């Protein structure tokens, strides 16, 4: 079934009796050419591009719960490509270009809204840093505008411009950035992969890998053994636990990242705003709720819940930026498990086990990278060569001395 305005009108006139499930729910086959472990955004996108773009077949996605039950279904929905370093900016700009044509490509409304993102400037040194970042973005083919104080005021006059500690002196604006509906992204990729013949197998947890002579033969699952020629692992915060079953120790730590949604309010923020003097970012959903977040909790955990210290820190950032937020009531809080790499940048690479591939280390950047991550991982699986924009994301870059330290924090995962 292909969706269209005509189809919506037809179903409305016929009692909506013609809609069908948007993907199948098959049982696993005894073997596949490709198995993708993880039914989140990156895993589903990988399967989609592997089948549609690289014309591969006999593909399965194995998800231990339901599709989209992990971080893809619980995030702050921001998409952007305002990075600095050459190892990152071309990749995220490639992802931004894929976002711009995504809904038309897989014929599903992912609610991609290019409403813009504004990174606020609070000091002269920060202005210089953002000018450098903006120039790097322009060189990579992205868009960037450096705004002065009055340029920011024209967009958001209600911000606290004269905060004694953090006065607003300007901002770096990327107009093509914005938000997308996280569930819609997962469902769109799942539907597209299913239409291309991919088996999406839910409630199928991988419990081990069968490796013989350094070569992967298949995976052990809660629904039995499944043979495979190649296996790609894209399980975000569970990367360390899953890869440990293959005898690998990753340069990754798992941390909790909390996010928050307020009660529904009248429209006040038409874009995305980030607080330059602390880690706070906020946008407004179509339902009216303010969606915001900040730092990870800073300690290793696999629990999808956080602590009060970070809640207080995020609230302080929000109050410093826009004191009016203190009048809004908080509707809900949730936590996701982040796979924090040593340098804050991702890993898309082969592993020492022949036939086993890894997609991990996305830290805060997982959602915005979904299209490019899936495309680059599919390229690697299909061709055994890295995609041009992902050549820097090697697993051994820490050993070789080639980290991609976007924040300049060093090899300390909890600071990224």
Automatic annotation (TrEMBL):
**Statement: the UniProt record of this protein carries the keyword Oxidoreductase:** yes
What residue stretches are annotated with the FAD dependent oxidoreductase domain?
Answer: 33-380
Q: Which GO terms describe its cellular component?
A: cytoplasm
Q: Keywords in UniProt for this one?
A: Cytoplasm, Nucleotide-binding, Oxidoreductase, Plasmid
User: Cross-referenced InterPro entries, in alphabetical order?
Assistant: FAD-dep_OxRdtase, FAD/NAD-bd_sf, SoxB
Q: Which organism is it from?
A: Paracoccus yeei
Predominant cellular place of this UniProt entry's protein: cytoplasm
Q: Which GO molecular function annotations are given, in alphabetical order?
A: nucleotide binding; sarcosine oxidase activity
Localization of this protein: Cytoplasm
Q: Which GO terms describe its biological process?
A: tetrahydrofolate metabolic process
- The domain of life is Bacteria
The protein, known as = Sarcosine oxidase subunit beta family protein
């Amino acid at each position: 079934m292909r969706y269209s305005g005509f189809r919506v009108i037809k179903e409305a006139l016929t009692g909506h009796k013609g809609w069908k499930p948007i993907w199948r729910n098959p049982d696993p086959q005894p073997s596949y050419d490709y198995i993708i472990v993880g039914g989140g955004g990156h895993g589903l996108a990988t399967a989609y591009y592997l089948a549609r773009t690289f014309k591969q077949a006999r593909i399965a996605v194995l998800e231990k719960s339901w599709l989209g039950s992990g971080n893809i279904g619980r995030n702050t929905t921001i998409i952007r490509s305002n990075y600095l370093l050459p190892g990152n900016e071309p990749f995220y700009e490639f992802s931004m270009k894929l976002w711009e044509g995504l809904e038309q490509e897989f014929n599903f409304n992912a609610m991609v809204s290019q409403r813009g993102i504004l990174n606020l400037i609070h000091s002269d040194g920060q202005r210089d840093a953002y000018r450098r970042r903006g120039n790097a973005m322009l060189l990579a083919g992205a868009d960037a505008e450096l705004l002065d104080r009055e340029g920011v005021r024209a967009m958001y006059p209600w911000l606290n411009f004269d905060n004694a500690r953090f006065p607003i002196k300007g901002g770096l604006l990327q107009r093509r950035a914005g938000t997308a509906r996280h569930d819609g992204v997962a469902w769109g990729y799942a539907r597209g992969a299913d239409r291309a013949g991919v088996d999406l197998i839910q409630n199928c947890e991988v419990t081990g890998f069968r490796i013989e002579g350094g070569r992967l033969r298949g995976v052990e699952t809660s629904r039995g053994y499944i043979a495979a020629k190649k296996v790609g692992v894209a399980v975000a915060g569970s990367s360390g636990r899953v890869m440990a079953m293959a005898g690998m120790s990753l340069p990754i730590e798992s941390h909790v990242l909390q996010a928050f949604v307020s009660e529904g309010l009248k429209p006040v923020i038409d874009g995305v705003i980030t607080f330059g003097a602390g880690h706070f970012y906020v946008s407004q959903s179509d339902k009216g709720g303010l969606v915001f977040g900040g730092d990870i909790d800073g300690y290793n955990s696999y629990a999808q819940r956080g602590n009060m210290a970070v809640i207080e820190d995020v609230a302080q950032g929000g109050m410093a930026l826009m004191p009016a937020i203190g009048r809004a009531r908080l509707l809900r809080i949730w936590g996701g498990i982040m796979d924090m790499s040593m340098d804050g940048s991702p890993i898309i690479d082969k592993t020492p086990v022949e036939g086993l591939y890894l997609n991990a280390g996305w830290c805060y950047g997982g959602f915005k990278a979904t299209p490019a991550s899936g495309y680059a991982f599919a390229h690697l699986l299909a061709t055994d060569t890295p995609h041009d924009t992902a050549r820097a994301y090697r697993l051994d870059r820490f050993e070789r001395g080639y980290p991609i330290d976007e924040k300049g924090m060093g090899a300390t995962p909890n600071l990224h």
